[in-house]
Structures are given as structure tokens and as C-alpha cells.
Task: structure prediction
Amino acid sequence: MSFISSYIHIKDKEVWKDNTLIYSNTEGISNNKFYKLLYKQLAIKYMKFYKMDELSKLGLLASEYLLEDRTLTSEFKAEDIGIVLMNRQASLITDIKYYDTIKDATNYYPSPSVFVYTLANIVMGEIAIKNNFKGENIFYVQEHFNAELIHNHTERLLQRGSQQALLCGWLEVEEDKIDGFLYLVENSAIGLKLKHSIENINILKNQ
Amino acid sequence: MCSVYLIGESIISALGTSMDQNMQHITALEGGIWTDSPSTNGNPIPQHLQSAPSLNQLALGFINWQAVEKEFITNTIPDTYTRFEKLLLLAINKAIVNTGIDTGSSKTLFILSTTKGNIELLNEELAKQYPNERIQLWSSAQEISRFYGNNNTAIVISNACVSGVMATTEAANILRNSNYNHAIVIGGDIITNFVLSGFLSFQSLSNKACKPYDSERNGLNLGEAAGCLILSKDIESDIEILGGASHNDANHISGPSRTAEGMYYAVNDALKYSKIGANDIDIVSTHGTATAYNDEMEAIGLSRLGMQKTPIHSLKGYWGHTLGAAGIIEIAALSWAMKHNTLLPTLGYKNHGVSKELNIQQEAETKEISYALKVASGFSGINSALILKKKGGKK
Result:
């Protein structure tokens, strides 16, 4: 039996953790300004953060909030901690930014540091590096949040004993919309002690 | 737990549009990488690449689009689909022939492996011809599955260069644990100015046909391809899909681990789930992109796994690095090798250029193959491994 021990939902300009609003900003600021505020609020020192694209920033911040009071690598082997993510637009928001640097022959300046983020799964690499998670990774692209797909994949990994803890969720960034939902699944009932089920995942996501 | 079999496969690459063409060229060590001079690939330069920056300094594995366009017509693939989608539809048509599966069944699942899909729709002129959402990967997958009358939600797996191996592993796992009977696993990516300019900015492209594991290797060749693998738990075949796994290096987003951390874990897990040991593997299809770091990492990984003597091949010298298609077409080629008991040769390798001993196959050779391993590694630090078994093989 597996459980959801904690979740985080960064939605528009609010941050919810385990059913509690822990941060909100009503000043109508840009996404990037908002990420910077969260970064400061979390009081992390991680210079690489500033180089990341929006999707990676959102994923990193959500994972930092989710794991604020945990060090998973002291509880589990690094190779037993996995990441299962999904979104709708893959890396489109960064694809458009990169395309702007190549579409005009007279203003052509492609940069490898932007290009690397034109892959949706890079955010998993960023979270893995920051936390030293060497477990299973998968990135799905779906029109809508598909709790069943994430749940079933996560359960298969837990049941065959290959993974002990998994960060799962949905990370979507649009022009002025943020939807970052991450939750932690493990075999022991701690924290929220919520049964890992499709129904419960959907309840948390829609709260 | 039930077994999952590979019952149909296809490859459309720089080497040709049929399995036979592709495998004849590979076993004869004939590459399909186009270089300005001399042209080793007879395919005409595609219209959309003629304006590519510094084309004469590039070596690319592009498809013969003139030949493919003709096949779109004979396969009655409508023009409402994009170039990328048409290529995938053609790949599916070729793979499902003789499998007898019902593509429209609620028990048939479509899984798409791609990195950039319809990214060329960022071009406003081109975008006008299609609905707005068509640039989304899920939209492509949905349109492709609808073409075959399938109403299930198609799954898209986009994990850089390991996408194809990961999608095949995921398809097999879903079949083993659900009511689905068949999975149509498709992989594809096309060469666009978007991807080409990015790899150029990374300075990871070779200006000659690439040389995997060679001392003179100086980068990869970008390729384009589409492929399809039909998986089934209802219909048996000679090739069974066993265990697979993926692990992150947690080291660097655009370079592999120096200790092959993720690859080592991925292969070990794949062996464990398949209930076999490294010694049982008769052939390894590696990622072998011919970049300095990738090939060195794989040599270290295979050495750590005790597989220095196991025959390996990289197919990148034939068709380049085909991104989201790579895992799919390289598994298709591997299954052919198993069925024909043939070790596949690596094109471009001459002088050993990695720090560990490896048994790199240089000529096609007959050998009984029971178990095969496919590995891949990609941006974000991800590594995937999958094992195939031949019916009647030892153990």
C-alpha cells in the first residue's frame, strides 16, 4: 500500500501546501517576478536557478516547497527516488522564445543555453541534480491532467520495489498562468497519510 | 504476469522506407548520411533544408522526401496531416501489415515518442494551414490515433533522446498491467531549422559522417526518421519484450555522467526485471552518437557492467541521431538482428577511441542471439535500458 505524504500547488500567484495557503501575491506581477519572490521566500542559494527557463523554475520551486522539511536521500538510496511528470504544452513557451532567436536571418543568435530548455523533460534533470535523485524519470504530454496514467506508472514502480519515493505531478506554464502541482508518494503512511489513489490525486489537484 | 511480444515493426530513415532496404544497407555497411561532397546519400536535399545555415559544412541523415511523398499518395494519407504526422502514419501502415490487429479497438493503445513533433508550425506561414493546437504533441498523437479510428487517449512520451526506448518499455508495462491487448508505439522527429540551429549552437555536430567510438570522432549527425513497433499480449511472435528501466545521472542537464551512473542503474534494473544476468546478453545496441562524452560514458558503463566482451553496435553512422525515432528504429533493427541471428556492424568505427575495452562489431556476422539489450541516454541526464528475448533462446 502506498500513500501521498505531502503535496504542493502553485496556482496562479498562490502557493498551497497540504491544504494550507502559505504564500500569495495579488499585485498582478509577472510570472518571472513571482518566481523570484518564491525563491527569496524559500531562502535557497542556488545560482543555477536564474539560468533556468520558466518550466524548470516552476518545477524546482514546487519541489523545494514540497521537500522543505525532508531530505529524501538520507532516507532512501538516490537511485530509488523517482520523478513522474506531465503537462500539456511540453516546452512550447521556451520553444517560442528560442524560435525568436532564429526566425530572422538578419537577427540570428541561437544560444545553447536557451536551446537546452526546449525539451520538456529538462525540468526533471534540474530537480534530480538539485536533490541528487537518481531514480526513474518519465515525462508525459497530455491534453488534460491524467491522474490515472501517472498513478498507474507510479504504482508499478513501487510495487516492483524499484522505487521507494516518487515526486509526481503536473507542471504547466502559460503567458500569465501558472499551474504547478507536485505530490510525494511513498510506501509509509506519514504526513497527509492519504491513500495513493486516482481519486485522491484528482481531489488534491482540483482543490 | 503475461508476456508481451513485438509483432510488427517499420523503419523509415535516410537508408530507405522499408525494413528490407534499411537492413540490407546496414548489413552491407552502406551509410545514408548526406555530406556535401561526395554525397553518400542519394536523397535529394529537401526543400526546407536548402536555406539551412552552412549546409555545405553539415552531414545529415535526411529522408528521401520525394520517395516518401509518393508513398503518402499510394497509402492515401490525406494532406490535412503535417509532414511529421504523415511520416508517422506511413510508418504505422507499414508495421501493421500482416499483424491483423484492430487499430480502432478500445483495447489498442497508441503511444507516441517524439521530442519536437510539429515544431515547424512555429513558422507562421505553415501554421496557417492547420488548427492552432496542432503544434501540441498531444494533438498530433490524437490526430494520428483518430486516423485509425481509435478513440482512446493517446499517450505522448517526450524525454529527449531516450523517448523511444522509454515509450516501448512503458507500452509493455501498460499491456502487462491493463486491459489493453495491443500497443502501437510510434517514434518520429524530422530535421527542422529549429533543431538544426540548436545542435549547431551546441557545436555537437560533425561535418562528416559520424564515427562512433572512434579516436577521430568529432560529433554527431542529425538525422530524421519515423518508426513503429506493434506490441501485443494476445498474439505471440519470436521476439518478446522483457524488462526496462530509466535512471537519471543527477549530474548535468546537457552532458552524461563521467561514471555512467544512470546507465549503470538502468541496465542493472532491466536485467533484474528480466531475471537474467549481464552474461546472458548476446548483443547490445548502444546509443553511440559519436560525441566525445556520450561514447566515453557508454564505454565506462559497459565496463562497469562487465560487458566489455559483449558484441555491441551503434547505428548512428547509418542514419544519424534521429532523436524521438532513435529508440524505436534501433529496436526494430535489433529485432531483425535477433530473428536473423546476425550481429550488426558499426559504420564509422576504425580506431578505438574510448578509454575502456569494447567489442565493437565491424562486420555483419552470424551468431545465435537469445537476449539483446538496447540502451539510450539523453539530455536531462536520463538513461534507459530495455531487454528483448528471442523465443527458443537459451534459458
